[in-house]
Sequence to fold (100 residues):
Amino acid sequence: MATQIVQAPQRAERTTAPLPSAAVDAMRRLELALADPDVVRAVTRYEVASARTAELSAAMDTRNLSGAEVDSLVLAQDVMAAARTTLASAGQLHLIEVAR
Fold:
């Protein structure tokens, strides 16, 4: 009697629900706590500069910025670019980019 080969059933793909934002934040804080100090500095600098950029961008919607504010906006954008470069080199861009 010959042995018959039977294919195993196909596995159904499993999908998982997205994590709650509190869990995502907790995982991000944990990952940041374990990260290289240069990465931590880059994330912090990026977040501060991002907040300043948002603040000045909102002000631009209602009035013209002063010369000092324009300089501050340019500086904040430069800081964000430098921090992003540092994080890209470390393979850690996910720490500052919004999930897609």
